[in-house]
Design goal:
The protein contains 7 helices and no strands. Helices cover 59% and strands 0% of the residues. It folds into 2 domains: 5-41, no CATH class; 52-101, 434 Repressor (Amino-terminal Domain) (Orthogonal Bundle), CATH 1.10.260.
């Protein structure tokens, strides 16, 4: 038994047209909807991250945060997080310990 787009939309908190556009890859869901999508599906549809940059992006999306909000949560400048997410640079030892120790 399938689920109708209207039911999906209601459970995620968007309209039917939005679900339609996501299904047909006309647009990607904004990060703020990713946690509800994961909850609805019962699993995370995002590819498993392999690099630090990918891990940061997936963690941010799973939390439904923008780069600015995630940077604030990590206590770093948004441009620093943007560089890390592009694979340019890595957190310092101090920042790396913070990332590993602090639950996101």
């Amino acid at each position: 038994m399938g689920v109708f787009p209207k039911q999906v939309a209601e459970q995620i908190g968007v309209d039917r047209a939005t679900v339609y556009n996501w299904e047909r890859k006309h647009m990607n869901p904004p990060n703020r909807h990713v946690p509800r999508i994961i909850n609805f599906l019962g699993y995370n549809p995002l590819p498993a991250p392999t690099t630090l940059a990918e891990k940061l992006i997936v963690a941010r999306k799973n939390l439904g945060l923008t780069q600015k909000a995630m940077a604030r949560k990590l206590g770093v400048d948004p441009t620093t997080l943007a560089r890390w997410e592009k694979g340019r640079g890595r957190p310092s030892n101090r920042a790396g310990r913070f990332l590993r120790a602090k639950p996101l």
